[in-house]
Write a structure and sequence with these properties.
Length: 435
């Protein structure tokens, strides 16, 4: 049996049907790849999940120190920067220290530490408050300054001390003064002495004594010494000049007289200063004033006399603070029997006070963060944690730690400003990732 009619082939697909088929295959591939990426560790979705847990990380969570939004549940490397992930709260190397606002722990590898010059120092126990060191300048003891004055007009007849700085002894002649009033007063005294002798045998003997006493008192008020009265009574001749003598031992610090000058009671011919004791004036900062009290012992050393120490005591603390320097003047009285200490010389004063044991760190380890003070503690493996601390007394270039650190802790002393900036940045990024 034959068929004249040809057998027909299967229908050939049209162009639109082929495009529809290719589209379905592509969508299937995209869905498969997307599902695979979502299941891979470290994928974007998992990072977002880790970020949500940043507020309450688990016991084995790890975080990138440079990208706090990267949080994993296993150790590894950051997919962004390649740094090693570090343990979070409850992980290895964590320290139970007081929290610091707007700061986060940072990790710095040894190479970066060397690059930025990071150095650390240990928190050690030491003596606190025993000594207060400050610079000092020697000054004249103002209570030992004397001015030579006159109580009668006259003319300088002879000058025995003729330049500033000359040392004088108590009772040494300074100058002789010719005064007509002084000569007249001596004549009156001699007349009173002779009158007393004439009235000694009569009823007016008491009047003669009163007359001599009155004339003598007048001369005594002019600082005439006792030996001058004896000489007057012995010789019966009035002395032409009155000799002015030094009231103290010291040096001449001012001279306002020349030979032949006329002087009145208003003039000050000489100023004399007793340098057997001098003052060491030192500046004490406001924070250290509580450590200084009148009567405390102290020592003074001078660069001009190395190896020598002079002892003294605090005799005065200025009750008014200098508003510009925020310091108060301290006065240390130092004996100067040999005249070695010269006013105007600079030195170092050490005030001795009661001491106690405490924790000390270098001043460079303390950062003022505004409302609190911060120190960065090394936890090991390049990890540094910010600690809120409370400071006490300053001891030279060190400061006492009252709270926040323990003995033996290592704190950053150099490059801590860079570490502080990175810590603040990390805390800010972590805060943004929690929103």
């Amino acid at each position: 049996m034959s068929f004249d009619r040809p057998i027909l082939d299967a229908p050939t697909p049209t162009r639109p049907s082929r495009l529809r088929t290719l589209g379905l295959v592509a969508l299937g591939l995209i869905a498969g790849v997307g599902g695979t990426l979502l299941l891979r560790p470290g994928a974007k979705g998992e990072h977002r999940h880790g970020t949500a847990q940043a507020a309450a990380p688990g016991p084995h969570m790890y975080q990138c120190p440079m990208h706090p939004q990267i949080i994993e549940d296993h150790a590894g490397d950051c997919p962004i920067c390649g740094m090693k992930l570090v343990p979070m709260n409850g992980g290895e190397g964590e320290s139970a220290g007081p929290a610091v606002e707007d700061h986060a722990a940072v990790t710095i590898d040894p190479e970066r530490q060397q690059l930025i010059g990071l150095t650390t120092a240990r928190v050690l126990e030491g003596k606190v408050g025993g000594e207060l060191r400050t610079t000092a300048i020697l000054a004249v003891d103002e209570t030992r300054v004397r001015k030579v004055n006159l109580k009668v007009d006259g003319f300088v007849d002879r000058l025995f001390v003729d330049f500033v700085g000359k040392p004088v002894a108590k009772g040494q002649p300074l100058f002789s003064l010719y005064s007509p009033e002084f000569v007249s007063a001596q004549e009156e005294y001699l007349l009173a002495v002779r009158t007393r002798k004439g009235l000694a045998a009569g009823a007016l003997a008491q009047s003669g004594d009163d007359l001599v006493a009155s004339a003598r008192r007048r001369l005594a008020l002019w600082d005439v010494p006792e030996e001058a009265f004896d000489r007057l009574e012995r010789t019966g001749v009035a002395q032409r000049d009155i000799i002015l003598r030094s009231p103290v031992s010291g040096v001449v610090t001012a001279k306002n007289v020349v030979q032949g000058a006329r002087l009145t009671p208003a003039d000050i011919p000489f100023e004399l200063t007793d340098l057997s004791h001098v003052w060491a004036l030192a500046d004490v900062y406001e924070a250290e004033l509580a450590r200084v009290k009148v009567g405390q012992p102290g020592t003074l050393t001078l660069a001009s006399m190395p190896g020598k120490t002079f002892r003294g005591r605090v005799v005065f603390v200025d009750p008014i603070l200098d508003p510009k320097t925020r310091t108060a003047k301290l006065r240390l009285e130092v004996p100067n029997p040999k005249g070695e200490l010269k006013p105007g010389t600079y030195g170092e004063a050490v005030i001795q006070g009661p001491a106690h044991r405490g924790l000390l760190v270098p001043m460079d380890a303390v950062l003022d963060a505004g409302t609190q003070k911060v120190a960065f503690v090394a936890l090991g493996k390049g990890r540094f944690e910010p600690r809120a601390i409370t400071t006490g007394l300053r001891v030279g270039d060190q400061v006492e730690i009252l709270s926040g650190l323990r003995s033996g802790d290592e704190v950053i002393t150099r490059a801590n400003f860079l570490v502080d900036s990175e810590s603040r940045l990390g805390a800010a990024l972590a805060q943004m990732s929690r929103r």
